[in-house]
Specification:
The chain has 151 residues and is an alpha/beta fold. It contains four helices and seven strands; from the N terminus they run βαβαββααβββ. It is globular and about 40 Å long.
Length: 151
Amino acid sequence: MMVECPDLDAMSDFGARISAQIRPGDVVALTGGLGAGKTTLARAILAGLGHVGEVPSPTFTILETYDGPEMRVAAVHADFYRLDDPSEVRELGLEDYRQDAVLIAEWPDHAGGFDHLPECLGIRIEIVGQSVGGGRKAIVEAGTDWLGRLP
């Protein structure tokens, strides 16, 4: 499935539609080049789950957790870009963070990937046109747990 996101409002709407379907234990795996819009979509998903306030990019912290009372589902926002080897994920204690939460993972391939999981919603974001400021398209691949609830 492909979703056109010609502007920031469309990306925010897409994130809201995803968040409406999220269940604890889900993984939203975001791929795409630098500047493609992975963090923008992650922020929109978190806002749709009820988070109010800033959402810093977890590029340096690797993991950020969101579990306040305003959240419909707790979330872990991860950016695995800086991992050198997928085995480093074990050192982060990711499985402990994922208990009863959704994982929103940027650069999931650096963590060994999640697309083999039935609860994974894989989204590849591509820039449309020549400029980073232009529109985006999102190519969505759903694990079996997502069938019937695709946004």
